[in-house]
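HUMAN: Would you supply a protein with fold tokens?

ASSISTANT:
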Amino acid sequence: MSSNSSPEDISSPINDEEIYLPNDFKYYQNNLDKSQFNLTLINSSIFLIKLLYKDHDVTINSSNLRFFIIEILKRSKTSISNLQICCFYLLKLIKSHNDDIIKDPKKLFLGLIILSSKFSQDCTYSFKTWIKLLNMKPDDLKDLKSLEINLLNQLDYNLYVNENQYENWCNILLIFGYDFIKIQKIINLKSEIQWENKDSEINNKLSKWFSFFKNLKVSNLNDSHIKIKFTNYYLNQLNKKIFIVHSLFEKRHYHEDLNEKVKVSCK
């Protein structure tokens, strides 16, 4: 996956402090490295799909779905922001109480990625290009168009996400994904993570998040007075699921470095 850059990302002689957008892992003060950040977002999309199909008679194979999602993202060179917006559309579908859901989770994800790319990019792939990228059959063109119309109907043709909504949502999305990390160790300022692997624990967390998302007012994400910060949540996890492993050969304690990083984004 690639992250889109903007002129704001580039430091200037006037202000040498780099400014990062929520589609860049550095925006979160390097609490996760790039690969961990990407993996957390992929897992978030899988868990959102599971929540969407929670009350439907659909079996989801997480391994197959993960492979499918990664292949789509790689072949289409989908940006981080497109994936985040795709997950926002998943949230809206979870809240829509629509029983007429697309039965195939893979097709649903593909359709939402196509919609998110059309919303966020002026120049995007045609249906024929998507078919070539994914090695689909030419006859699938009609189905792909029908898929798009179906999802647009379910989203009430409202694909718009403004800046404040996007930023708040990206922070919620990362908190959601990080909740399924069991332990994170910081060793010499390098991160090692261990994912939760107990089905009972995962299902318990999914149930809690399902209630949260159902009660979440999407309109509140647009409130300029509401600023949701992943780093605030992250700081609260110190000595709970985040552990600093001190080095015997360094004078400075690494938790001081970590706290300094977190404080920057908590202002």
